[in-house]
């Protein structure tokens, strides 16, 4: 056995639990890195870590040497595994061998396979599991640079999965026609975390110099963002400062509109976000209306509201249906964005904050996970009885 494999086994094998007391294992296969942006996978799997041994398998990185998992454990107990191998290797074979070795260490414990990307079927399809779950948080096939084989692999995953979750109503409507056991679990929110932004806090250094009023955005900056809308709004509202926070993906930084009142501050950690939001006067979601946004249910919507910010969004279907029609979020297009943004800087309508808090009171990641776990346990019992 090589040194890397020995370390792998030593790091992952339970030290003190007796086999009968060992928790079941959940192997998550994700296209998103754990440290990229704190969103649905992190929220749910941190909750799930109280019920399962969680192994979060990221996409690979390349380096010379024997293939291995780089292993780290986060505060919740989730074990994050990054496959590392030579770029000249057969990547699917190396990932399959690593996951096979991981699963061999589970010593007969019940195993749940949890997919965020159908692409992972290429190296896991022959691995047994007690339950296969597809948590469909996005329509990945509609994203820029989506692999040509993604749609066929998703069809295979939908056939293989016993249980399918969706991240919003639009995805639910699309997937329920393709699977008999689909359940909608829209984006939730850690209200306590973001409600801290309702109390004034010290302005972060890279934002403190920016004049007020400020309207902010947090999220990945990619093909889903309407860059022309941002440029037009900034030009029409030169006294309003637009603070844009998040990593850039799949677009060139050279494509970002530049103006004295547009501020691209880059990626921030989840813990830092309330500090930025506490020093904004409003928030917005300038999404383009295209194939990539047709099915999205942005996690940032309830996060902004929990922070006490009035929100302007373009007409993304799930935002309109869940928040716009209830008067919780203002919906605008290119013709109405300027007056709408101005309005959100004013005094909120009477009863708005109370309506927001009532809506958010029904949302929590803990509650979402508990509901998912009930469904998972029911399906596992059926499997054990069969």
The amount of beta strand, in percent, is: 15-25%
DSSP helix fraction: 25-40%
Q: How do the SSEs run, as a string of H and E?
A: HEHEEEEHEHEHEHEHHEHEEHEHEHEHHH
Could you give a short account of the major beta sheet?
Answer: 9 strands, mixed
Number of helices: 15
Low-confidence stretches: 1-7, 14-21
Rg from alpha-carbon coordinates: 22 Å
Oligomer: single chain
* Total E-strand runs: 15
Shape: globular
- Mean of residue pLDDT values: 92
What would you call the structural class? alpha/beta
How far is the first residue's CA from the last residue's CA? 38 Å
Question: Layout of SSEs?
Answer:
Blueprint: H1 3-12, E1 25-29, H2 40-48, E2 53-57, E3 61-62, E4 68-73, E5 79-85, H3 91-104, E6 111-115, H4 121-124, E7 131-136, H5 150-160, E8 163-166, H6 169-175, E9 182-184, H7 191-195, H8 205-208, E10 214-218, H9 227-236, E11 241-245, E12 262-266, H10 273-277, E13 282-285, H11 300-306, E14 311-313, H12 317-324, E15 330-331, H13 337-344, H14 352-360, H15 365-385
């Amino acid at each position: 056995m090589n040194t890397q494999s020995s370390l792998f086994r030593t790091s992952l094998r339970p030290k003190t639990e007796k086999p009968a007391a060992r928790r079941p294992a959940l192997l998550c296969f994700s296209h998103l890195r754990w440290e990229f942006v704190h969103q649905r996978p992190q929220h749910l799997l941190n909750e799930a870590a109280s019920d399962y041994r969680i192994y979060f398998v990221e996409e690979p990185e390349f380096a010379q040497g024997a293939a291995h998992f780089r292993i780290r454990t986060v505060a919740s107990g989730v074990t994050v595994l990054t496959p590392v191998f030579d770029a000249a290797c057969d990547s699917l074979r190396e990932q399959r061998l690593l996951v096979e070795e991981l699963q061999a260490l589970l010593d007969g414990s019940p195993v749940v396979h949890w997919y965020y990307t159908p692409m992972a079927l290429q190296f896991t399809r022959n691995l047994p599991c007690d339950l296969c779950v597809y948590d469909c948080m996005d329509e990945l096939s509609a994203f820029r640079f989506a692999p040509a084989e993604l749609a066929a692999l998703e069809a295979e995953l939908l056939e293989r999965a016993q249980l399918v979750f969706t991240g919003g109503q639009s995805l639910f409507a699309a997937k329920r026609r393709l699977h008999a056991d689909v359940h909608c679990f829209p984006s939730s929110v850690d209200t306590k975390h973001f409600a801290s932004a309702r109390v004034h806090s010290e302005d972060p250094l890279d934002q403190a110099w920016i004049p007020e009023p400020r309207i902010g955005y947090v999220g990945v900056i990619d093909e889903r963002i309407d860059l022309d809308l941002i440029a037009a709004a900034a030009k029409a509202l030169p006294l309003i400062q637009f603070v844009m926070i998040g990593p850039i993906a799949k677009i060139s930084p050279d494509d970002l509109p530049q103006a004295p009142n547009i501020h691209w501050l880059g990626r921030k950690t989840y813990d830092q976000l309330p500090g930025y939001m506490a020093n904004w006067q409003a928030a917005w979601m300038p999404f383009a209306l295209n194939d990539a946004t047709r099915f999205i249910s942005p996690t940032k919507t309830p996060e902004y509201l929990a922070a006490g910010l009035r929100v302007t969004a373009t007409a993304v279907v799930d935002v309109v249906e869940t928040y716009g029609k209830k008067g919780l979020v203002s919906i605008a297009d290119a013709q109405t964005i300027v007056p709408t943004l101005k309005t959100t800087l004013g005094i909120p309508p009477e009863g708005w904050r109370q309506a927001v808090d009532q809506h958010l009171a029904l949302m929590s990641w803990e509650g979402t996970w508990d509901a998912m776990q009930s469904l998972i346990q029911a399906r596992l019992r059926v499997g054990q009885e069969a």
